[in-house]
From TrEMBL:
Keywords: Cytoplasm, GTP-binding, Magnesium, Metal-binding, Molybdenum cofactor biosynthesis, Nucleotide-binding, Nucleotidyltransferase, Transferase. The lineage of its organism: Bacteria, Pseudomonadati, Pseudomonadota, Betaproteobacteria, Neisseriales. The gene is mobA. This is Molybdenum cofactor guanylyltransferase. One of its GO terms (molecular function) is nucleotidyltransferase activity. It comes from the Bacteria. It catalyses: Mo-molybdopterin + GTP + H(+) = Mo-molybdopterin guanine dinucleotide + diphosphate. The N-terminal domain determines nucleotide recognition and specific binding, while the C-terminal domain determines the specific binding to the target protein.
Length: 195
């Protein structure tokens, strides 16, 4: 294990902007999108898991653990996957790095830069990358202990990652490369980045 960090790839959405297609499985440069994300993050993490609610066998073909949202959290957005994972983390994992299934160009130092900030600031619960385009909450790094606050947030009607991070002591990691955080979440962006 390179770091005490679990990567949770978020692939549980309904793909509304893609006409209902499963974004993580869309082909890009010869492979499903999610495979590009895994290739970027695998060297940065000690353990990888995938949050998916459809095509579980396709995601399981990656060789990584796949979890569908538990019944208590279904329909609650990407945080449902985080809440589902919370009690399944292996021993020795102290942090959870979130990544979307449709961002194939994420930085090679995404985990390292955020982890350095959290390790230097023991009172911080989370770190969120930011570019000139603003914060990227779907790529946040969470301290494992912060996940205990998630059930109450969801039970109170909270759904957004941004809203959850606002409850935490969250630090910011600045990144210059805005393209690295490109989300291919509609046909136009998929076509553009393919060029």
């Amino acid at each position: 294990m390179t770091e005490p960090v679990a990567v949770l790839l978020l692939a549980g959405g309904e793909g509304r902007r893609m006409g209902g297609r499963d974004k993580g499985l869309l082909p890009w440069c010869g492979q499903p999108l999610y495979r590009h994300v895994l290739a970027r993050l695998a060297p940065q993490a000690g353990w990888l898991a995938i949050s998916a609610n459809r095509h579980l066998d396709d995601y399981a073909a990656s060789g990584h653990a796949v979890f569908a949202d538990e019944a208590a959290w279904q329909g609650m957005g990407p945080l449902a996957g985080v809440a589902t994972l919370a009690d399944k983390l292996p021993d020795g994992i102290d942090y959870v790095q979130l990544v979307p299934c449709d961002a194939p160009l994420l930085p090679d130092d995404l985990v390292a830069r955020q982890l350095a900030i959290l390790q230097a600031e023991p009172c911080a619960d989370a770190c969120c990358p930011s570019t000139i385009n603003g914060p990227q909450p779907v790529c946040a790094l969470l301290r494992r202990g912060a996940l205990v606050r998630l059930p109450d947030y969801l039970a109170g009607g909270g759904r957004s990652l941004r809203g959850f991070l606002a409850l935490l002591e969250c630090r910011v990691a600045d990144f210059d490369d805005t393209r690295a955080f490109s989300n291919l979440n509609d046909p136009q962006s998929l076509a553009r980045l393919g060029e």
